[in-house]
Amino acid sequence: MDIDKLTYGPVPSRRLGRSLGINNIPAKVCSYACIYCQLGNTLKMSIERKSFYNPEDIYLSAKKRISSLKEKNEKIDYVAFVPDGESTLDINLAKEANLLKEFNIKLAIITNGSLMYREDVQNDLMQFEWISLKVDSAVKSVWKKIDRPHGKLNFEDIKKGYIDFSKKYKGLLNTETMLVKNINDDEESLKKTAEFIKTLNPNKAYISIPIRPPAENNIQIPDDEDINRAYLIFNSYGLNTELLVQYEGNNFTYTNDFEKDLLAITSVHPIREDALEKFLQKSNASWKDVENLIKKQLIKKTFYNKHYYFSRILKKSNS
Ligand code: SF4
């Protein structure tokens, strides 16, 4: 097992500063197939929690990366579970979180929330200081359209799970709503979504837009006017709303192996051409090395929203 692929970064994050990523789920195992997913199409739809990796391996991978970053005086704001699929499908989540606490760096997790109806998932999430829960819409038909959930998921049970969890969780609970033009940006749906989010009393209600290449080609970023309207609607429900509409910056960290670093980052985080240029300079690599990875079909180049992006070509694992 190549433990290096279990962690990546740190990568610049709009919400978490510089976060060291934990990739605890194999290539796109997810309970959703969101139309805007930056990882591409879901390779394995699942709602079954299981063990994917040995928690010790995740711990050792993080330890190795953190030591090498410390030597370079690189700052890490969070250790964040932001994997190749849905983070809570990992049955060892709490075990891994406990092991990672040794580093005294705050723990964060991004989840689509689809398993929140389960008490074990709620309990596992209590280990984290910062959580982002997906709430793309509180309207069932819109949820189905945008998140394309696993057929066995029950929307009302999930919403109840969110509410129950929000009452007992003591850390920073945040919501994220990805706005997609003509899908979930209409006034009626936004009001219902804001009303539901209000019941969770979140630290922040983030509204984001698909700034990186999405799974489906026909996805569009809403017009500025509609983004502003969404912001105003959320605010009118008393939510501490923040728009995530800016690119997060180019400060990607090089540890010591260009190819491994780039593959680990692009597997969860498509990287923009200007960011890659900087990354090449840091790591003494060249565009030829990038072309080689494209030739080997390990990464691909995509044009989206006025920029070129480089992302990992994810292949189905046996998980
Ligand atoms: S955006 Fe997240 S929840 Fe949606 S399909 Fe991609 S990995 Fe799964």
Structure description:
This protein has helices at residues 55-71, 93-100, 119-125, 140-147, 155-168, 187-200, 224-236, 258-268, 273-282, 287-295; strands at residues 7-13, 17-22, 29-30, 44-45, 78-81, 106-111, 130-134, 172-178, 204-208, 241-244, 271-272, 299-304, 307-312. By secondary structure, it is of the alpha/beta class. It has one domain (3-312): TIM Barrel (Alpha-Beta Barrel). The chain has an eight-stranded mixed beta sheet. Strands 11-13-12 form a three-stranded antiparallel beta sheet. The protein has a two-stranded parallel sheet with strand order 3-4. Strand 8 (172-178), helix 6 and strand 9 form a beta-alpha-beta unit. Helix 1 packs parallel to helix 2 (93-100) and helix 6 crosses helix 7 (224-236). It binds iron/sulfur cluster. Iron/sulfur cluster binds next to loops. Residues 30, 32-34, 37, 39, 42, 85-86, 112 line the site of iron/sulfur cluster. Residues 12-243 form the Radical SAM core domain. Keywords: 4Fe-4S, Iron, Iron-sulfur, Metal-binding, S-adenosyl-L-methionine. This is Radical SAM core domain-containing protein. One of its GO terms (molecular function) is 4 iron, 4 sulfur cluster binding.
Short description:
The chain is built from 10 helices and 13 strands. The protein is an alpha/beta fold and 319 residues long. Helix 1 packs parallel to helix 2 and helix 6 (187-200) packs across helix 7 (224-236).
Biggest pleated sheet:
8 strands, mixed
Which overall shape is indicated by the principal axes computed on the Cα atoms? globular
Helix tally equals: 10
Query: Can you tell me the number of structural domains?
Result: 1
Mean pLDDT: 92
Helix content: 25-40%
Note the run of SSEs as H and E: EEEEHEHEHEHHEHEHEHEHHEE
